[in-house]
Amino acid sequence: LCDDMNTPVALAALFDLVTWIHTASDAARPVSLADKELIEKIYSRVVDGILGLKEEADQVQLPLIEGLVDLVLEYRTQARVLKNWAESDRIRDRLSGLGVQIKDSKEGTGWEL
After folding, report:
1. Residue 2 burial by CB count (10 A; 0-12/13-18/19+): exposed, middle or buried?
2. How far apart are CA 9 and CA 29, in angstroms?
3. CB-hemisphere CA count at 13 Å for 31?
4. Tens place of pLDDT for every residue, the chain, 113 residues?
5. Residue 65: its pLDDT value, please?
6. What is the structure's pLDDT at 15?
7. How many Å apart are CA 85 and CA 88, to the nearest integer?
8. What does the angle CA 55 – CA 67 – CA 83 come to, to the nearest 5 degrees?
9. Fewer CB within 10 Å, N- or C-terminus of the chain?
10. Is 99 left (phi over 0), alpha (psi -120 to 50) or beta?
11. Alpha-carbon distances, residue 34 vs 21, 31, 39, 43 (angstroms)
12. Angle, CA 58 vertex, CA 72 and CA 38 arms, to 5°
């Protein structure tokens, strides 16, 4: 199976890509921040999703993360009900800074990492 998929070559290319990303800021042609984020996202999808190399600890902690985000969003919803827009915005901005994107709709509030 390894030979059929040429896995060693694919993994070597991924590690070369990571090295290039980390040294690009010193290169004559540095990548933009948007390009760097896109490359890191693609790398993450390949390593985590396709190759299945994501750490199992992430899966164990997912219910904890979901519960905590839901709890924080309950406080944000209460702030919105009380029309405390400053607190609602502060919670949204702090979650966004942690990589949690809030999606408000008429059906309620959702989120994604």
Report:
1. exposed
2. 25
3. 16
4. 445 556 666 667 767 776 766 666 555 666 677 877 877 777 777 766 666 666 655 566 777 788 888 889 998 999 999 999 999 999 999 888 888 899 988 888 889 88
5. 80
6. 72
7. 5
8. 135
9. N
10. left
11. 12, 8, 9, 14
12. 85
Domain ranges within the chain, ordered by starting residue: 2-54, 57-112
Rounded-to-integer distance, Cα 113 and Cα 35, Å: 19
Rounded CA-CA distance 104/57 in Å is 30
- Name 111's Cβ contacts closer than 8 Å, sequence gap at least 6: 69, 73, 95, 100, 101, 102, 103
Residue 99 one-letter amino acid = G
- Six-digit token pair at 108? 């309620």
Question: What is the C-alpha separation between 57 and 60, in angstroms, rounded?
Answer: 5
Taking residue 17's Cβ as centre, other Cβ atoms within 10 Å add up to: 15
